[in-house]
Structure formats: structure tokens, C-alpha cells
Amino acid sequence: MKHKALSSEHFLNCHVRWEKFRNRDLTRGEQTSKWNETQCESCAYYVPLVGKFSEDYGACTNGISPFDGRIMFEHDGCGEHSLSDHFLQFSISYKNGDP
Questions:
Q1: pLDDT tens for the 99 residues of the chain, in order
Q2: Which of 24, 47, 83, 89 has a CA positioned 20 to 30 A from the CA of residue 68?
Q3: Is domain 8-22+36-95 annotated with CATH 1.20.120?
Q4: Vertex 74, ends 46 and 69: CA angle to 5°?
Q5: Assign residue 55 a region: left if phi > 0, alpha if psi is -120 to 50, beta otherwise?
């Protein structure tokens, strides 16, 4: 079986296709401060994808979320957000200048 490396073009095409599945419209500048606190990237149930996709996308694994089992953009979110202890530890370390 041959393995194929995915191109940047493939990643960009996926990004454009997947925009229509977002829960929040991030293009209209209507984000609220609450959105910043409930982004997928800080949710305990958000599992980042690998490779180029890991920077922007992950899978929702929260069984009570309407997005369970779906690919989510890191800045999207839903009403079932649960803040991750790992994200809190990273945020505190980053603010303190720790690597």
C-alpha cells in the first residue's frame, strides 16, 4: 500500500468545504466574549487531528454535544463546552513564560 502526503492545496480545499458546517459564523465579526471562553480548542472533549489539520481542526467527543463525532474548527464551539485542565495548565505556563 502506498502512502500519499496530503498537499497544502488539499488542506485549503477541506478548510473551505468544512466552513459551511461551523456552528458559529466567525466571518461576521459578531463574536462575543463568551465565545472566546467556549472555543473548541479549550474543551476537554476536543481531540486535535494530526498533520496540517492539527493546527485548526479536531474531533468533538462529547456525547451530550450536538457535534459529537464531528470535525470542529478550533475557534468554533457549542453550549456543551467543558474547560480542559490541560488547556488551563498550558495557558498559565504560557502567560508565565514557561516553555
A1: 666 777 889 889 998 898 888 887 766 666 666 677 788 988 989 999 988 888 889 999 999 999 999 999 998 888 888 887 765 444 444 445 554
A2: 89
A3: no
A4: 45
A5: alpha
